[in-house]
Amino acid sequence: MRIGLFTDTYTPDINGVVSSIVTLQKELEKNGHDVYVITNHKAAKMKKEGNVLRLPGLELKWLYGYKLSTPYHFSAKEEIRKMNLDVIHVHTEFGVGMFGRIVAKYLNVPVVTTYHTMYEDYTHYINRFELEEVDRVSKKMVSAFSRMISDSAQAVISPSQKTKETLEKYGVKTPIYIIPTGLNFEKFNRENIDMDKVAQIRQQYGIQENDQVVVFVGRIAKEKSIDIPIEGFRYVKNPNAKLMIVGGGPQLSELKDMVKKYQLEDKVIFTDKKTRDEVPLYYACADCFVSASLTETQGMTYIESLACELPVFARPDDVLDDLVVENDSGFLFDTPQAFAKKLDYFFTLPAEERKSFRKRAKEKVVKYDSNVFYSKVISVYYQAINDFEDAYEVVRIKMLDDYVRIYVENDKDDQPLRILISLEDYFTYKIRLHAMLDRYTVAEFQHKEICLEAYRSAIRKLRIKDYTRKEMQTYFDHISGLSEECENALLDELEEKGYINDYRYVCDKINSMQFALTGKNKIQRLMIHKGVDPEIVDNALANYDDGVEIDKAKHMAEKLMISVKDKSIVMKKQAIFKKLLMQGFDSNIAKESVEMLDFSNEDENEALEKIVLKAKRNYARRFQGEQLRYKIVTYCVQKGFKREDVINKLEEMEWNNE
Question: Cα separation of 240 and 225, whole Å?
Answer without folding.
Answer: 24
